[in-house]
Write the structure tokens for this entry.
Amino acid sequence: MIAELGLAALWLAAALAALQLLGGAVALMRGEAEPLAALVRPAAQVQALLCAIAFAALLYLFAVTDLSVALVADNSHSAKPAIFKLAGTWGNHEGSMLLWITVMALAGGLIAWVEHRLPERTLLATLAAQAFVGLGFYAFLLVSSNPFARAVPAPPEGAGLNPLLQDIGLALHPPVLYCGYVGLSVAFSFAVGALLTREVTPAFARVMRPWVLGAWVALTLGITAGSYWAYYELGWGGWWFWDPVENASLMPWLAATALLHSAGVLAARDALRTWTLMLGVVAFSMSMIGTFLVRSGILTSVHAFAVDPERGTFILALLTLYIGGALALFALRAGTVAEGERFAAVSREGGLVINNVALSAILGIVLLGTLYPLLTEALGFRVSVGPPYFNPMGAIFFLPMMAVLAIGPLLRWRQDRLARVRWQMVAVAAAFAAALLAAWLLAGIALLPLLGMALAAAVAVGSVLPLARRRLTRAPLTLWGMVLAHLGVAVAVFGMAADSAFTTERLVALRTGEQTSVGPWQVTLAGVEPVAGPNWTALSATLQVAYAGGASVPIEPQARSFWAPAQQTSESALLTRWNGQLYAVVGGQAPGDGAERWQLRLWWKPFVTCIWYGGGLIALGGLLALIGHVVGDLRRRRRWREARA
Amino acid sequence: MIRWRLWLWLPLLAIALLFGLFALQLSRPKDEFVRSALIGQPLPTFSLKPALPGQPPLANTDFADGKPRLLNVFASWCVPCAAEAPQLAALQAGGAEIVAVAIRDTPDDVAAFLDAYGNPFSRIGADPYSQLQIALGSSGVPETFVIDGTGVIRHQHIGDIRAEDVPRLLDELREAGE
């Protein structure tokens, strides 16, 4: 009964999306006074409600483990902990599609409910664009992946959920990611709406900005958490592998970062109109292309996904329709969008243009590197593209961008003179030179990490300078957001540079009781014990580790063998200090002379944790800016209402 | 007034090329279904030293005695090769004769590997520089070929043999014998 209710709600929601599209199209062609146009906002709101009902129905079915529903029977089990029963709702293809469309419908409903700042025609066109995107997903869900299909006869027990997915981080991963993607889909719809009516104004940018910011915060958190997961779970001691799945998450982030900054220029100064529209289309396109690359299985990746070529074909058809359509619209209309305000090269806008060019260039580099293997495969040979390409190519644009980041926020809008900020520039340059000298004297390190460290110091100083000579309690939340996010960039870059410059690695084979050292650590192999888990057995090594002659602490890396499917994994052991992490992995028994020796791989990684602290700071900065903008918008809205009353 | 600007069409052009590439890749069969160019061809001429001292060597002429065999390309340093050991044992129990080629290996390592995971092989040739592997069109370890009684390659299995592949390989072997 509940399943049928959910399915009915989903069909009704799809019908309302069609109505929303129709009403928006009528408003666009004949004006917003048409009766059908008046239905667009209510349609979006009711659609949101219906989607919420459908999703709640599926949640309920998973919560009570209703095995007569095929999806529940295939993905759940009555003995699973409650939290993972709920997480099972979106831990599969059908449920995750329903989650996506629900978040999207809720976003549309919210826009229809609160947004009154845009010209009505543009807003209706935006909602129509959103309905158009939504309809593709409804079709996908209802035609080929109905989550509410019944299993006849109902099996006595469910098939369970992959035990590896029973992890709280992975349970939260899809909702966070979808918030990011849906936020970008809203920005996409706004861009399409504005292209349709040619109304590209600062108000448009202000309306779009919170959605971009929200999406950007979610993507930042997703990438940071994903990077840490790969770091401790894969046991290779690295935090970024330029793997296609990682690149698929990085590309929308780069585009969203550029969009965020260009929307800021449009909102404040009415400049960069066409460029902002373009980025609005590109950011969502990148998240869709990323999803496609990951799910269609056309790229080989260390991350295994359930791959289905038919779904890949369907997503590609959707992509062609949406992205191709939006870019064709862009090509036809962008030339007719009135030109925005002009600005001098030395100005806040000028700095932000450099930021945008650099981010776009890096995006292009990552996209090319990710797709190059695909291209050569089409030509008949196989290559893999890795750090030797991405690191230096990315650095070419990243390093100048960092330099601009340190100074740009200090410049005035429209026109400025560098001489006005000379003292701040001196401070930034001094930080750069001091860090360069210190890092160079301390250790002979390679060029890239050396520059990275010096630029991190410069950006750290530059990022807090906008707060100088301000009453900190009076500084707006949006300013704090910018300062924290830029400081986060400095912290993360410092972590990356420190990791690549100072990491010491030791690969040894030890007998029980033997000792080795890595960096300032003394490591003693105390023993190796076999242990057993629910579906694995492991060799668990106990290491006594002491930092610089201090008290010793035990850590226990494991080498696990799963038997279904047969797979070996390393459970690394980490010991975190304020100044870095000790990372230990145990391999198998060393071959050779009979005496039991065990392979150990040890890393001392000074300040590596800064990478993720930096990511967290960036996300926190974004969150503060988001709150600042939303609170400001609400305040203006109240004032506007009072003025009208 | 519509002002046609060429650069505004560039993004669409780029995306069209990209999606064309995607469509091309999607329409191609995936690797696991690709048939090796050598299927239906006789084995290349080779003569390998034994991987273990004192054991018989391996040459392509050993396959021309009328009996179909499996040819397993493996290495002691390869984890999936250890994972497929039970399946090779099952194939042997199912009546298959399995000969093997050890890629870039040493006698000690091969011996240790066979001690740990069992030895289902009737002969093991050593291919220390991957020469035979390349001649066979095999791009990695493990791979398993079905060779008929005249020394012609009939089937190629890429990657480790899973439990569900065992009956299929036995069928292939039976067909090769008919």
About this structure: The interface with chain B takes residues 278, 281-282, 285, 289, 292, 296-298, 309, 312-313, 316, 319-320, 323-324, 327-328, 330-332, 334-336, 371, 374-375, 377-378, 565-568, 591 of chain A (CB under 8 Å).
